[in-house]
Structure formats: structure tokens, C-alpha cells
What we know:
The longest helix has 15 residues. The protein is globular, with a radius of gyration of 16 Å. It has one domain: Rossmann fold (3-Layer(aba) Sandwich). The protein contains 9 helices and 5 strands, in the order βαβαααβαβαααβα. It has a 5-stranded parallel beta sheet with strand order 2-3-1-4-5. It is α/β, with parallel strands linked by helices and 190 residues long. Helix 6 packs across helix 7. The mean pLDDT is 97. Bound molecules: BIS(adenosine)-5'-tetraphosphate (B4P). The site of BIS(adenosine)-5'-tetraphosphate (B4P) has 28 residues, from helix 1, helix 2, helix 3, helix 6 and helix 9.
Amino acid sequence: MLNLVLFGPPGAGKGTQSEMLIKTHNLVHLSTGDILRKEITNKTKLGLEAKKLMDQGILVPDNVVIGMIDSQLENNIKSNGFIFDGFPRTKEQALALDKLLLKKNTAISAMISLKVDDQELIKRLLERGEISGRSDDQNEEIISNRISEYNKKTAPLKLFYNNQQKLYEVNGLGTINDITMKVNTVINKL
Ligand code: B4P
């Protein structure tokens, strides 16, 4: 199985690149952000709770997102592998993911980390906010909170995967196709 963690700050291109890669490699795309937004649209109890946090740029509790990923793995047991997009975002989530995959006799193959500077992240997210109306992309204050949550709680995971010799860093600036080519070069060497 090919199991990839697509990693990077908010707006780095994780969702965008995931869409490109699932076709080529026949993988299941698991985006915790997308799953949470579906819950919000359906106005479930979980969705209403999550919305309060997401609208402030704060991470949703670990037990909630770990439970979501657990059930998605169960539902896609026969797949070629997974792209984890926006998950894990904390050490607890990374440890839980390793355990869940071990139970299925598999493991993370690589973490691909997209590197983009803060100025470009803010520009991309404000642009998306205008087009999509996404509530967490609407102003610089919320976006700065998301970047600071990333720096505090999520960025340290690079060390976690580097210690397992699974970290690959890719420059996330340039055209979407150029970045996909660079990511594919990494995947083809695995
Ligand atoms: P996510 O949905 O994961 O949102 P994101 O970090 O903004 O990344 P996304 O994948 O959507 O954007 P992309 O970079 O592709 O998270 C939202 C919130 O949900 C979090 O803040 C948190 O509250 C909660 N959450 C989600 N997962 C969680 C977890 N595991 N634990 C706890 N809480 C969790 O693209 C951004 C924009 O850039 C797009 O408009 C795109 O078109 C553009 N773009 C992409 N590549 C580009 C390029 N090369 N050049 C120019 N523009 C580009």
C-alpha cells in the first residue's frame, strides 16, 4: 500500500495536490477539513461544535478527527493506499495514525511537506475566501491564527517523520503542475 501524508501550512496546496495525485496513483483522498466541512453543511452536532473552532482558526479536538479517520479507513479497507490531507496535525494524531495503520498491517510510506512563505499563504487563502465564501478564509486575523496553530502544534511533526526517515520537502511555490511533477518525482523513488 502507498500511504502518503501531504503536509504543509494552511494554503500550502495540500488539497490541490491531493486531487492531482489520487488520479495518477489510484489512492483514496482523506481530508479531515473536507470531512468536517461536510458535517457543518449537514448541521450535525459534531459539525456545529467544529464550526465554532474552525471559524476562529483553532484545531478541532484530537479524539474527534482520529475517530473520523478510523471509520474512513474501515470503509476503504480494499484500497491501494491513502493520501492523508490535513491529518495528522498533532503528535497525538500522528501516534494514533501509526497505530490504526499497524492494525491493518500497513504504515505511512512518506510525508511530503510543501514549503510556502506566510505572505503567499495569506494571499492564496484570501483569494479563495473571496471565491468560495469559506468562513475561515475571510480575514487575515483568522488566517494568522491558523498559521500560528500550524507553527505551534503541527510543524513539529516534521521531526516526528524525519526520525522515521520518511520526510520529503518540496518547494510549494510555482504552478500547480510543476509542483505535482516534483511530488511525483519523490513518490516514484519510494
Ligand atoms: P483544511 O481543510 O485542512 O484547510 P487548509 O489547511 O486551508 O488547506 P487546504 O488543503 O484546504 O488548502 P490548499 O492548501 O490546497 O483545514 C481547515 C480547518 O479544519 C483547520 O483550520 C482546523 O480547524 C480543522 N481541521 C482540519 N483537519 C484537522 C485536524 N486533523 N485536526 C484538527 N483540526 C483540523 O489551497 C489553498 C488555496 O491555494 C486554494 O485556493 C488553491 O487553489 C490555492 N493554491 C494551491 N496551490 C497553488 C499554487 N501552486 N499556486 C497558487 N495557488 C495555489
